[in-house]
Amino acid sequence: MNDRKKILMIVGGGIASYKSLDFIRRLKERNLEVRGILTKAGEHFITPLAVASLTGNNVPTDLFDPENEAHFSHIELARWADLIVVAPATADFMAKAANGLANDLASAIILATTTKVVFAPAMNVRMWENRATQANIERLKTYGYEFIGPTNGSMACGEYGMGRMLESVEMIAEVERRLEPPCERNYRAIVTSGPTREAIDPVRYISNHSSGKQGGEIANALYEKGFEVVFIAGPGSSLPQGGMEIIQVNSADEMLQAATSSLPADVFVSAAAVSDWKIAEYSDHKLKKQNKSQSLDLSFVQNPDILQVISRDVKNRPRLVVGFAAETNHLKVNAAKKLAKKGCDWILGNDIGKESDTMGGDFNEVLFLSRTENDKWPRMSKKEVGARLADRIYQHINRKGT
Ligand code: C5P
Which of 94, 235, 173 is CA-nearest to residue 383? Predict the structure, then answer.
């Protein structure tokens, strides 16, 4: 029986299309079976002949070609693949996929497949940053599509910024990871992420600068390891890839409610930057300026400490509870105090002092603390922190058994 993994490459149209040829060559070197198709725009940049020569298979280009449809229809192609890679994924192609259009061969395959689909976007930085593109990507993520890149760099158009497709060696690593079977043990993790918003009146709130990127990367990494993941997202936090349960909340009270009702779980990761206080008395009408007074007095009361409640108060405490400590000074001392006070098992300390770009940025420098360990991780991307933490969580949970 042929158990070689099968990759379907959809090559979109952009200056990065040429990189797909090298990518196909490297896939073949790894003994993967590859078929390729080109979008109409893709055909302007590379030829079907080049793709056919590298894959060793014919390259259909038209949804309405009777010969191709009779020979190996778009439905058969959609079923054939173990993984579909769209590279380069153009803004236009992702817009089509996000809206369920299926008026050409490539988009019809995306709509017809139940296989994992990975997009490798490539475009000009302005097109990448455009709200329509970003909204399409968010939507595709909630449908379960995955993304490889893009990255920062100089572009063919002479600009510099986000929107460059990854190089084929980097793409290969991402593809191989996705072809590995996930762990078979069915562990459940709850991850909280992002800020909370505490309403003052119907139009105002207090919140913080958390982007939710780190929590999203932890959830992604746990999901890729085979965990069942419940992702509890504060407002505006980046949403991880699809396939996991996503609960969107606003306030700390809502986050606590979502967390406790998602128990039991094996692991709880509290990456959210939960507001410590909420407004003592919410005003159900918009507060007005008072003529006499130049100032406004608001009183606050403490929010529930979600991490502490899950660590100490719930009946079905997860076997592993992980918290975060974002500190502007005395990181080690404060993180150790938090570990003891909150009753969690591990704390990941972040220095968010003046020099750091941790809050909202893409990188993180972590101090890992448990009752017995004290481990300083080097500065790395939030994605790498997510992967490293997920490995550690998996080893811990798996070692202790169920
Ligand atoms: O006390 P502090 O907010 O610095 O603690 C940080 C840790 O506690 C984080 O893991 C955060 O998610 C959690 N936390 C919480 N509920 C709060 C405040 C913080 O779960 N109300």
Answer: 173
Q: Which of 156, 157, 298, 333 is catalytic?
A: 157
Under DSSP, the state recorded for 169 is H
Q: CA–CA separation, 82 vs 32, rounded Å?
A: 10
205-230 tens-digit pLDDT:
999 988 899 999 999 999 988 899 99
Report the pLDDT averaged over residues 346-369: 81
Q: Measured from the CA of 324, which atom of ligand 1 is nearest?
A: 10
- Pick the atom of ligand 1 nearest to 310's CA: 20
- Please tell me the predicted confidence (pLDDT) of residue 1: 46
Residue 166's φ and ψ, nearest 5 degrees, are -65, 160
Nearest Cα residue to atom 21 of ligand 1:
305
Identify the residue whose C-alpha is closest to ligand 1 atom 7: 324
pLDDT of res. 177? 77
- Please state the atom number of ligand 1 nearest to the C-alpha of residue 308: 20
Q: Residue 232 contacts by C-beta under 8 Å, 6 or more apart in sequence?
A: 190, 191, 192, 193, 247, 249, 255, 258, 259, 262, 272
Ligand 1: centre distance to CA 352 (Å): 15
Instruction: Look up the pTM and report it.
Output: 0.62
- H/E stretch holding 118 reads strand 116-121
CA dist., res. 120 & res. 130, Å (int): 17
